[in-house]
Amino acid sequence: MAAPGGDMQWCFSQVKGAIDDDVAEADIISTVEFNHTGELLATGDKGGRVVIFQQEIENKSLPQFRSEYNVYSTFQSHEPEFDYLKSLEIEEKINKIRWLPQKNAAQFLLSTNDKTIKLWKISERDKRPDGYNLKEDDGRYKDPNSITSLRVPVLIPMDLMVEASPRRVFANAHTYHINSVSVNSDHETYLSADDLRVNLWHLEITDRSFNIVDIKPANMEELTEVITAAEFHPHQCNTFVYSSSKGIIRLCDMRESALCDRHTKLFEEPEDPSNRSFFSEIISSISDVKFSHSGRYMMTRDYLSVKIWDLNMENRPVETYQVHEYLRSKLCSLYENDCIFDKFECCWNGNDSVVMTGSYNNFFRMFDRSQRRDVMLEASRENSKPMQVLKPRKVCAGGKRKKDEISVDSLDFNKKILHTAWHPQDNIIAVATTNNLYIFQDKVN
Amino acid sequence: MLGRGVKRKWSCLEELELLPGAAVPEEKRQNLAAGGGHDPSMSRLQQRQLVLSLCVEKLQHYQAGVELSLRRSVLLINTLRQIQEEMRSDGTGTCTPEVLLHGVDPDSYLLTDDMSVTCSGCAEGDMESLSLSPPASPEPASQDAEQQKPLPTAVSNTLSDAGSAGGYLSDLALDDIFEDIDTSMYESSDLLSAWAAGSLWPVTSSLWWDEDMKLRPAGHSSAGSLQSCLMDLNELDHIMEVLVKS
């Protein structure tokens, strides 16, 4: 395992997507996820498509170039739908992709839009049967009476074909918009969460799901809090967490009761009164929650910060990292242009020593927990020469701007990095700008 | 222009702009917004006013055929409630829209009866107490009145933009209201805008889809109920005009 964040030098590796500045709406990347080995990297977009990249086998003669990711499979996962009852469109945008652990030659992933979750099987075909004597050359079946010998077809090699087929469709279980999908460590069940409910599914059963959390009030006018994300514990198949728009995380144990409306643990940090503003609640809304690989910690992302929580301590996080503190004085403008509602995700590296999250102006940040160091980098076409080392970026909040610093007023709030992913074993990261996917890797010395 | 009361002089208008709680003219609002949350020239009250009007504007703005984000709506409404709560505790606590909100029957948007939008405190008999309270203590009251007034007017303004929320209100420009500080003018406009503000409640309840709604009368989709409750306000026009004239 390479050295943690502080010593790492991140280099540009690849960029995927159109070079145009004019972004087609359908190409906006909405989710990024490595599979469990890191060999496959999936992206979902606003047009309902899933693109899977595969890491090529390492080129031994050129060790300084780690293997590249190339397109492996592309398919249309979800189509736009129309809800006739409400006269509303159901977007085909892929909200989340989650890979299942691999059990056989095929790969499986769950992809979801606002309402429907689908299980896709991605399989390879590199052989085809040949030698049937049942058909004419033009494909018509021969008259059976004319066939006098028994010929067993043989499998002959063919060009690799990757096929994606929908194996299960889990529909009609969510009234509100699905924000999360999480596969359980038992590899048999998974949860899906919308604004008010969390459902538990069995991967084999599509016509039923169990509702395990329901925070919908009897009177909708009393609604003040919604569910923003949910995830299963990586090792304890009975444990999951869900976060809320009020900055609260609830941990539930499914062994306690069928309906987990009563949490086992509640994680909330008391508000700092000196930071109180009209926007306090909005910026406390948690946009992502991720367990560490070890299962001992969880990370939450709210508008301005990333917090690491020890599952054994509910009253405050053990670590807090400010992602872009320079925005605190700009909250009013960010509220006006709606950016304050942006939902940033976050991720852990393979050994839980570094965490990463995105920001504006195509900047993203890494926080090295062990070395207490952090760095801000930029994903841009200007820094896209092969193996070009990324230079750290700095934002100047006000007053004198040093050389190479960018002023907070010059930040482009339309260029946001909401989705990032870290290879489960290596120092390879995937960072999604609006419509491009950047792959960076640690410089191998 | 209304033609009611005396039009204020330009110099007085400039002074008015700087009063805390005054409605912020569009141009200045843009400057304030650009300056960000801690613009030294923007006091907390000015920011509160800005956030409040933005809140209502965002709640009103919806694209037909696209489902609203429940999370966004909830966060906006919570912010709105927080500000209303603060304004209520700052003010003298008369019939603010907050009071109206509590008084409104949750199912009010389904009701066609005009008077059902009234809250108990705003029944005919209480109107005198409404109109009397602002002038009761001139100095602090005028301050409070200034603070209370922008809330309903901002709400009513955005409502009038959204639809047919009273022909009278939709003809008003924001500036025109604040050019008159004649108290008799204030009393009736406060009442009128308070009525309009009362309808914020049925608006917010229609902002999110309740799956039980399919059991209710047809035609009440989230967009549809917004339209239907705004159309109910048309019928309130008649009542408003009667009250204004009296």
From TrEMBL, chain A:
What Gene Ontology terms for biological process does this UniProt record contain? blood vessel lumenization
Q: Does the keyword Protein biosynthesis apply?
A: no
| A GO-annotated cellular component | cytosol
Query: What Gene3D superfamilies does the entry give?
Result: YVTN repeat-like/Quinoprotein amine dehydrogenase
Alphabetized UniProt keyword annotations: Repeat, WD repeat
GO-annotated molecular function:
protein phosphatase regulator activity
Note the subunit structure: PP2A consists of a common heterodimeric core enzyme, composed of a 36 kDa catalytic subunit (subunit C) and a 65 kDa constant regulatory subunit (PR65 or subunit A), that associates with a variety of regulatory subunits.
Q: Which family does it belong to?
A: Belongs to the phosphatase 2A regulatory subunit B family.
**Under what name is this protein listed?**
Serine/threonine-protein phosphatase 2A 55 kDa regulatory subunit B
Gene expressing this chain = ppp2r2ab
